[in-house]
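We modelled the chain as a single entity of 139 amino acids. Its sequence is:
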Amino acid sequence: MKIEIPEQKKLVFDLCMPIRWGDMDAMGHVNNTLYFRYLESCRIDWMRSIGGMPDPQGDGPVIINAFCNFYKQLEYPGDVRVKMFVSDPARTTFETWNTIERVDQPGVIYAAGGATTIWVDFPNQKAKTMPDWLRQLVS
């Protein structure tokens, strides 16, 4: 299945990782919970690459929802490519979108998902205006 990412979404990161033997379930395909782990790995590696890791004594990103739509079963062995897109920056939030494909089948989407990310003041446990440097990256 081919999924087109609308133009208003901006590609910001691309991560390749192996499908591990232990990612499979009793049915012989990657367990659906692992797709969320692939999305998380991409999101965290992007945050690390831009200097946006959370500071428990300060502020940082938190996801407030996440979803994944499953289109095809992933199976071991192989490598996945997770592409991350961003859109819809608001005062405290922005949206992330991801596609998951096999490296050996470029353009064939096995799953697509995303999350809403909010910038948080951790000591005060409340939303905080997103920093300008991050707003520029997600706009």
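As a brief sanity check on the tokenised model: The first strand starts at residue 10 and ends at 18. The first helix runs from residue 32 to 49.
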